Amino acid sequence: MVELDSITKIYKMGQIEIVALKELSCQIEPGEMVSIMGPSGSGKSTLMNIIGCLDKPTSGQYRLEGIQVDKLSDNELAEIRSRKIGFVFQTFNLLPRTTALANVELPLLYSGISKRRQRASEALETVGLGHRLNHKPSELAGGEQQRVAIARALVNNPSLILADEPTGNLDSRTSKEIMLFFQQLNQRGITIVLVTHEADIAAYTQRTIRLLDGQIIADEKK
Amino acid sequence: MKLRDCINLALRSLLSNKLRSILTILGITIGVAALISIIALSRGDQEAMRAMFQSQGDNLVIITTSEPALFVGLSSSTLTLKDADEIARHAPSAAMVAPVSQAPAKVVAGSEDEETTALGVTPEYQHVRNLHPAKGSFITDADVKRRARVVVLGSQLAESLFGQLDPVGQTVKINKRQFKVIGVLEPKGATFGLEDRNAVVPLTTLQSYLLKSDSGRDTIQGISIQARSKQEINDVITQAEAILQKRHHITEGEKNDFFIISMDDLVELGDQMEEMTRIILGLVAGVALVVAGIGIMNVMLMSVTERTREIGLRKAIGAKSKDILSQILAEAGIITLSGAILGIILGYVMAHISSIMVTNMGFPFEAPVGLDMILWTLGIMVFIGLASSLYPAWRAARLDPIEALRHE
Asked: In this predicted model, what pLDDT tens digit does every residue of B63-77 receive, in sequence order?
């Protein structure tokens, strides 16, 4: 599913070069549920951005479902994101003043899929929000907002869901709910990669990759 | 992304900030309305002026003593009756020549009296100047021959002396002598030696009874000439000028002591003045449109900055740069077009109301809003809308999704 081969990412901040990832290699198989852990500055966000096709590596190769994506143009990457990847963010990133349904429809709009309304409401039912289709984010609780975001990530039938600290803004009870839900999705065959710095969140996954200074220092499978 | 989806997205985002959208649209509406009404009014003005000039007479050439005497003036004149005779005799392109003499006149009817100017004319004057008596008749050859004490009243003069009564057949006193009213002229507006307030009498009558000294009796204040055809207008001017220069002993290079102009020249002169006014007013309205354009740019920049995160999210979930670009352009397009359409409607209403107001003041006037104006305005506005939103749209489209998502 995800094949990373000696990925290096260097940021230039004026004169200074910051090495965010250093010849990092790893593979994630279809159907896995993986957590990426590490202190801030360890490169986990950069890794997520590269896996999510939001960013390109400075060197190295990245194949997603067999497609080499590290040399693709911005437009082609957008296409990959819209067809293969679903994002879940710490801050939900829902459009304000926009109904749950319209928020979930958004990815379909950009991938040109028809029957948007129907598919969006199905996705919302999957996350247990079939009764809140026309609520706006401000009218929903934090956990519900994150579920809308998960529905949005699911609506395009992606092969990979990337979640960046998905429980960072939620209380522990809601966090548990969301993690159990991710597990359910995983059991249905969706590959899930999530970034977290909380060990008890990582505990919901079968595999934990630990990063430090842009390198993998541990890769534990349960 | 389909066009319909793009417009839907744009509409949704405009509706989410109603007040700002409305204010921006209002700015455009006012600019466009100003442009439309100014051009319409100026066109109406031009038409009215042309109509007025043309109603003065067909193929008309006017000779006066000096330039400012376009309107009734009592400056001493160098033109004589003999000049008019010579032109009538020796200018082959002149179909009809009508000399005009004038004298100050106090016209009394019953208890009403008016200070005005009496014009002494021949029957030719009616045809050359395209005059129509609203009531009664005009001066005849017989009247001129027998120096008849008859008078045709201008419409305003008739009204102030007689009110709603029919003046025809009544008697008035001009400079203490009795005159019989034989006609009343249609209203025409004040132009070129003839006003609605004037009293018109036979030329010979004016010379015998209303001019004080004998010395001035042969002097006339103007000559109106009708050319045989439109093509011969310039010939009339050349011929009349040559005859007068010879009679007035004006050598080549010397300044004429008379002034000669055709109505066509005046129409052209008027057109030029109107064109200039229109350009100046158009520039003012243009400034309003540029300001509206800057308004669009400002609003779009602000809204793009405000929505940085949202744009980042849209890109993260699969929006291409051109999707973002077209959304912002569609937003600006909707704002601009609705502003332009409202502005055209408002401009039309303003032009229409102005025409009604001017017409009610006694000058028949119409300010037409032509299809060409509407299309031009729409074209200009589409250009302004595009030009002013291109930069904000480009800025939004090239946002890096990672940076944008981090934006607070």
From this structure: 887 654 444 444 567
pLDDT tens-digit map of B275-327: 888 888 888 888 888 888 999 999 999 999 999 999 999 999 999 999 999 99
According to CATH, the topology of domain A30-54+73-221 is Rossmann fold (3.40.50)
The runs of H, that is alpha helices, within B211-320 are 233-247, 263-306, 308-316
The answer to whether the CB atoms of B318 and A152 lie below 8 A apart is no
Tally C-beta pairs within 8 A across A and B: 57
pTM for the model stands at 0.76
Between chains, do B12 and A98 touch, taking CB under 8 Å as contact?
yes
Residues B133, B248, single domain; the answer is yes
Would you say residue B58 lies in a domain? no
Closest residue in A to B324 (Cα) is: A110
- Give the other-Cβ count within 10 Å of B12's Cβ: 15
Clarify whether residues B210 and B129 are in a common domain: yes
- What is the residue extent of each domain of chain A? 30-54+73-221
Chain B residues whose CB is inside 8 A of the A49 CB are 402
CB A88 within 8 A of CB A35: no
Asked if A74's CB is within 8 angstroms of B402's CB, the reply is no
Question: For a pLDDT cut of 70, what percent of chain A falls above it?
Answer: 100
User: Beta strand B112-121 with B94-109: parallel, antiparallel or unpaired?
Assistant: antiparallel
